[in-house]
Amino acid sequence: MKWYSVLAIYMLFWVFTLFLVLPYGVKTSDELGQAKVPGQAESAPANLSMPRKLLWTTIVSALLFGLFYLNWQMDWITRSDLEQLLPADVRGPDPGK
Description:
By secondary structure, the protein is mainly α. Helices cover about 55% and strands about 0% of the residues. It contains 4 helices and no strands. α1 (about 5-20) packs across α3 (about 50-75). The chain is elongated, with a radius of gyration of 21 Å. The protein starts with a helix and ends in a 14-residue tail after the last helix.
């Protein structure tokens, strides 16, 4: 795999992981007992720490991408393995025959 493909796939993992990490640990003003700013949404976070979220995103995405890349190199789970999960009438032709 070329370096720019690796970078592009890692960036996809990173962005996807960011959306997974964002909601964790966020509390609203109501949950913290703080006064709301006029016009503030009920669900708006009161104490969002983006540097911490970005750090967690980088750590989790690096682990997930590492597993993906190792699978790519070692062929732990291949396309044919995934096709075996499909019903027989949906599968394509068996490449071994």
